[in-house]
């Protein structure tokens, strides 16, 4: 049985831990709000982008004019997986969930005899994937220094992906990130970005209007629009991820704070019991000593 | 009074304007153009330049935009800007950085086609620089 002093030290240490987790929870809550706001602020752009793209795609069609980024290379031998995770831990199963989804995907592709290449965005995903698939990782992007994710960060990743595609390094590109549903629910998601799938519903809604005029012409616009769209998708994924990360961290830290509270209660109880036992023992000693006289 | 229509300016980060406006002057790829209500459906790419928005209230706002697209419909107009800054908030350093980047791109360009595009972009940026920030 631990001595009274040991228990006191233990309680003090758990209390200190609880303070830290509590502070982290509150920081995560504040950051979550900001991340959520920026994710929402970015939504109009990607929506408009989607409808504009669907619009032009409907005009250009699948003909020879359509850029390769949209139609694909016609093969699906080599897959590029862009795995977006957080830079930090202490966020429950957030990183692990994304990595697990990516890993399952890799296994399935490898079993089908496809080639797989991985581009890691974020440190944690890289650390976890390195264990099993170090030979598949071709590059990693570190966002550790970045405080607020801006479009430029996403654009850099998008350009990297497109450069690889133009180089003939892969045929299909899939983006892995965690979609932010709510504070307590983040869903790991896989989204195919190359070849781009135009949303047929949106296209149907938009082409009801009159025919467009294009300046300079539809093909040229599409050529610049599609790479942009890839960057936008990456940007959206990063923002969703950011919000999910803070959501996950907040609930993880909330749990930790609560567990610490329970632990303190338990330790305090056994501390008090032991103190009481010691007092009783001392009393008995005194009384029996007095009776012996 | 001129008829008003719905105008939206969105950058990847956020929605900058969503208002009823009378006219918008857009620096289109093939030249500046003024969009008014009931314009024929048009899609154009945008070169770096200054966009003037004349609100229904008679107020005019000027924004510097760095490339993007404009989607014009009879009853609405949406500008998807790569980056957009209000003229008052423009940062000289940022613009100069962009010009420096464009110069590098030009130096790196190998093929003629690419080189020409880089040159055009650089020219547009320097023109913009001269127009809004008289030395």
Automatic annotation (TrEMBL), chain A:
SUPFAM superfamilies: ATP synthase (F1-ATPase), gamma subunit
A GO term from the CC aspect: thylakoid
GO MF: ATP binding; proton-transporting ATP synthase activity, rotational mechanism
Record PROSITE patterns: ATPASE_GAMMA
Subcellular location: Cell membrane; Membrane; Thylakoid
Alphabetical GO biological process terms: proton motive force-driven plasma membrane ATP synthesis
Superkingdom field: Bacteria
Membrane topology summary: Peripheral membrane protein
Keywords on record: ATP synthesis, Cell inner membrane, Cell membrane, CF(1), Hydrogen ion transport, Ion transport, Membrane, Transport
Subunit annotation: F-type ATPases have 2 components, CF(1) - the catalytic core - and CF(0) - the membrane proton channel. CF(1) has five subunits: alpha(3), beta(3), gamma(1), delta(1), epsilon(1). CF(0) has three main subunits: a, b and c.
Family statement drawn from the similarity comment of this UniProt entry: Belongs to the ATPase gamma chain family.
Role: Produces ATP from ADP in the presence of a proton gradient across the membrane. The gamma chain is believed to be important in regulating ATPase activity and the flow of protons through the CF(0) complex.
NCBIfam families the UniProt entry points to: ATPsyn_F1gamma, PRK05621.1-4
Protein name: ATP synthase gamma chain
Name of the gene encoding the protein in the UniProt record: atpG
From TrEMBL, chain B:
SUPFAM superfamilies per UniProt: Epsilon subunit of F1F0-ATP synthase N-terminal domain
UniProt GO molecular function: ATP binding; proton-transporting ATP synthase activity, rotational mechanism
Coiled coil (residue ranges): 92-119
Membrane topology annotation: Peripheral membrane protein
Record's subcellular location: Cell membrane; Endomembrane system
Record Gene3D superfamilies: F0F1 ATP synthase delta/epsilon subunit, N-terminal
Assembly description: F-type ATPases have 2 components, CF(1) - the catalytic core - and CF(0) - the membrane proton channel. CF(1) has five subunits: alpha(3), beta(3), gamma(1), delta(1), epsilon(1). CF(0) has three main subunits: a, b and c.
Full protein name: ATP synthase epsilon chain
Gene: atpC
């Amino acid at each position: 049985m631990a001595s009274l002093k040991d228990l006191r030290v233990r309680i003090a240490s758990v209390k200190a831990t609880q303070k830290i987790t509590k502070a982290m929870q509150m920081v995560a809550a504040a950051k979550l709000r900001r991340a959520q706001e920026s994710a929402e602020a970015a939504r109009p752009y990607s929506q408009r982008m989607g409808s504009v793209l669907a619009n032009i795609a409907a005009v250009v069609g699948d003909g020879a004019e359509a850029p390769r980024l949209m139609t694909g290379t016609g093969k699906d031998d080599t897959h590029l997986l862009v795995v977006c995770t957080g830079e930090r831990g202490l966020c429950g199963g957030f990183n692990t969930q994304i990595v697990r989804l990516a890993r399952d995907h890799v296994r399935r592709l490898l079993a089908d005899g496809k080639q797989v290449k991985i581009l890691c965005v974020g440190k944690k995903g890289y650390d976890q994937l390195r264990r099993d698939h170090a030979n598949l990782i071709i590059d990693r992007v570190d966002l550790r220094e970045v405080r607020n994710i801006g479009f430029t960060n996403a654009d850099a990743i998008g350009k990297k992906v497109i450069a690889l595609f133009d180089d003939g390094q892969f045929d299909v590109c899939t983006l892995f990130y965690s979609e932010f549903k709510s504070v307590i629910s983040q869903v790991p998601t896989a989204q195919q970005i190359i070849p781009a799938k135009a949303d047929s519903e949106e296209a149907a809604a938009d082409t009801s209007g009159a025919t467009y005029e294009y300046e300079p012409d539809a093909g040229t616009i599409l050529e610049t629009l599609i790479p942009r769209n890839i960057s936008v998708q990456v940007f959206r994924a990063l923002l969703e991820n950011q919000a999910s990360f803070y959501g996950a961290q907040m609930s993880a830290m909330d749990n930790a704070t609560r567990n610490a509270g329970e632990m303190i209660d338990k330790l305090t109880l056994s501390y008090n019991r032991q103190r009481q036992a010691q007092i009783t023992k001392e009393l008995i000693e005194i009384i029996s000593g007095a009776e012996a006289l | 009074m001129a008829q008003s229509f719905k105008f939206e300016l969105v950058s990847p980060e956020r929605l900058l304007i969503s208002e009823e406006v009378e006219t918008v002057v857009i620096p289109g790829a093939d030249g500046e153009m003024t969009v008014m209500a009931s314009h024929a459906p048009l899609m154009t790419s945008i070169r770096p330049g200054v966009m003037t928005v004349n609100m229904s209230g008679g107020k005019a706002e000027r924004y510097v935009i760095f490339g993007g697209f404009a989607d014009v419909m009879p009853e609405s107009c949406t500008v998807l800007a790569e980056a957009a800054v209000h003229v008052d908030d423009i940062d000289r350093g940022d613009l100069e950085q962009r010009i420096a980047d464009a110069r590098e791109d030009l130096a790196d360009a190998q093929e003629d086609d690419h080189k020409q595009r880089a040159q055009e972009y650089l020219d547009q940026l320097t023109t913009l620089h001269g127009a809004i920030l008289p030395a």
